[in-house]
Write a structure and sequence with these properties.
Number of helices: 18
Number of domains: 4
Shape: elongated
Structural class: alpha+beta
Strand content: 15-25%
CATH architecture of the largest domain: 2-Layer Sandwich
Distance between the termini: 92 Å
Bound molecules: adenosine-5'-diphosphate, magnesium ion
Radius of gyration: 29 Å
CATH class of the largest domain: Alpha Beta
Length: 593
């Protein structure tokens, strides 16, 4: 008996759907790309429950005829290419004819569509790949497609979806990838009946501004400089962030021929251009648009893959590197920076600026950490301590053991405006003043968040913080806990918060900058449970408010800090695992004499 048979289309489509439509965000991408291919100038995206219940895309594009709309849901049905040859002169986002059949295989789909030349439109309903009905309808020119109950018949996929908050962020990311490269098209994004973004037709720069809004009161784009390079091989334009605006949560985008791409190798080129200008963990933002002959890149791109292969990658790398360097040099950015962060690191940037072609040269062998450590050793630390100084502590201080009589009578001193040296029964205890204070504040703040009794200090002038849509989503999640710890904030319009008060311990800190750091930190740490993000909030605030290095302490101040520290259940490490206290034991000391 023969055993091979063809799979029914419905099954084949479901399998294909697994590749093309992995989550609501991939569905959004496909639908919006179709609207762009149809020449729409206004595209509205409407989602409910992060696309789980509803994902709707409404456009004013060319619409489809009665027969075409039916055809559109057949596999490999496309109006965009006719032969393999066409693949080399592609001017549309789609061409595989897979998206609509895949989507309709795993959801309830309802389309209304009308061409400008038709009096009436068509309404088509499909679910699980089966046509449920088709009729004439009154509707505006363009296409309105509703995808309901995504993955209703694929429970595994449904289960794989993350929380609504995460899926909404995925939707917005997919949305950004498109809106940033089609500034001339007007876009609207509505989530659960709330307009998250309304982006008018604009220039690229204005579009970046309306997507990312203001950071710290400054327009986002004022932190960017323009880059441009026109060569025979490729034309590159766009914007790169000024080094001083680098942050933990940078916006980094490459686009090629109107399409978002990931390109780790080109990313390296950009980072090379910044080398020596950024402290370790901070990243610059960039928005870089490549234009290149379609023949010079691989067009046969998998629908969900965003990596794109260039034929001449090394040459493009060099052109990109030079373009970014020139932009950074031209604006005379390098010399102005001084990263004196946490009092621990100073990074001199060697630079030469010639009159004509500005150039930034950075010493690649310069390692700020090494040099600084050496300096500490030479100037401040007695020679015999060098080795000990770097060793990990291996004791867990027990209050009663170290301080059987409490801390009130113990002699203590400050060393290097950084350590409190306590003369204990078992040896010399070195306590890092900044980190010790972090531990103390962290525990207080965490209590305040949990019990909702943070102490607020009113600001003289209210601050208004304009947020990007995905920061807004996160802020809405965090706002209750931020209020609990003493921020006085109210949502203000669709994408702003007004801030009237800050936790009293923050004193004069820039409220917006602090909130931005919290939001970035929560995102970066991937904290999705309330308990987790409460800890992150407490840690960010504690780190900002803690006694800095370089601050001279009075004996009373040292004593009360040590008293508070040793009252904690554990204090050897900060909440993020850095050493707070280290004991130079008597035994250890004896070995050296
Ligand atoms: P592809 O985009 O690769 O051609 P799709 O399955 O996404 O494949 O769409 C199939 C066809 O349906 C498209 O080629 C296009 O002719 C038509 N189509 C889909 N969406 C729209 C739309 N919003 N407006 C007009 N036509 C559309
Ligand atoms: Mg398509």
């Amino acid at each position: 008996m023969d055993v091979i048979h063809l799979l029914p289309d419905t099954v084949a489509n479901q399998i294909a759907a697994g590749e093309v439509i992995q989550r609501p965000a991939s569905c959004l991408k496909e639908l919006v790309e179709n609207s762009l291919d149809a020449g729409a100038t206004h595209i509205r995206v409407i989602v409910k429950d992060a696309g789980r219940t509803l994902l709707q895309v409404v456009d004013n594009g060319s619409g489809m005829s009665e027969t075409d709309v039916r055809m559109a849901f057949e596999r490999h049905a496309t109006s965009k290419i006719r032969s393999a040859q066409d693949l080399f002169s592609l001017h549309t986002m789609g061409f595989r004819g897979e998206a609509l059949p895949s989507i309709s295989a795993v959801a309830h789909v309802e389309v209304q569509t009308r061409r400008p030349e038709d009096e009436v439109g068509t309404l088509l309903e499909i679910a699980g790949g089966e046509v449920l009905g088709q009729s004439l309808c009154q509707c505006p020119v363009g296409t309105n497609i509703k995808v309901k109950d995504l993955f209703y018949n694929v429970p595994v996929r449904r289960k794989f979806l993350k929380t609504d908050q995460t899926e909404l962020r995925n939707l917005l990311t997919a949305f950004y990838h498109i809106v940033l490269v089609y500034p001339k098209v007007q876009f609207t994004f509505v989530s659960n009946d709330e307009i998250l973004m309304d982006l008018p037709a604009a220039t690229e720069k204005q579009r970046i501004e309306s997507v990312f809004g203001k950071t710290g009161g400054k327009p986002f784009t004022s932190q960017l400089v323009e880059i441009a390079a026109d060569t025979e091989l490729v034309s590159i334009r766009g914007f790169v962030g000024k080094p001083e605006a680098a942050g933990k949560n940078a916006q980094q985008y490459f686009f090629v021929n109107g399409r978002y791409m990931r390109h780790p190798y080109f990313h390296k080129a950009v980072m090379n251009a910044y080398s020596g200008m950024l402290p370790g963990e901070l990243m610059p933002s960039y928005f870089i648009y490549f234009d290149i002959l379609p023949e010079a890149i691989d067009v046969n791109i998998h629908p969900t893959k965003t990596e794109i292969k260039f034929q001449d990658e090394q040459a493009v790398f060099q052109i990109l590197l030079a373009a970014v360097r020139e932009a950074l040099g031209k604006f005379n950015i390098a010399p102005a920076i001084d990263f004196n962060r946490d009092g621990e690191l100073e990074m001199p940037v060697k630079h030469t600026i010639t009159n004509e072609l500005p150039k930034v040269t950075v010493d690649p062998n310069y390692n700020p950490f090494h040099q600084h450590n050496d300096a500490i050793k030479q100037q401040r630390v007695p020679a015999t301590w060098n080795k000990l100084y770097d060793e990990q502590p291996d004791f867990e201080p027990q209050e009663n053991e170290l301080f059987p009589l409490g801390v009130d009578e113990l002699p203590m001193n400050q060393y290097a405006e950084k350590y409190i040296v306590v003369n204990t029964q078992r040896g010399l205890l070195f306590v890092n003043q900044h980190r010790a204070h972090i531990c103390v504040l962290y525990n207080q703040l965490l209590d305040q968040i949990n019990e909702s009794h943070g102490i607020s200090q009113q600001l003289l002038f209210q601050d208004v913080w304009e947020l990007s849509a995905d920061d807004m989503v996160l802020m809405n999640t965090l706002s209750d806990d931020l209020r609990a710890v003493g921020f006085d904030l109210v949502q203000f319009g669709q994408n702003s918060y007004s801030i009237a008060g800050v936790p009293a311990i923050m004193k004069s800190a820039d409220a917006i900058a602090v909130l931005k750091d919290i939001v970035d930190d929560v995102r970066l740490s991937g904290s999705t449970a309330r308990e987790q993000w409460r800890k992150r909030i407490a840690l960010v605030l504690a780190s900002k408010a803690a006694i800095p290095y370089g601050q001279r302490l009075l004996e009373d101040e040292m004593r009360s800090l040590i008293r508070e520290l040793t009252a904690l259940t554990t204090y050897r490490l900060t909440p993020d695992g850095k050493t707070v206290a280290w004991l130079l034991t008597d035994d250890e000391l004896q070995k050296h004499f």
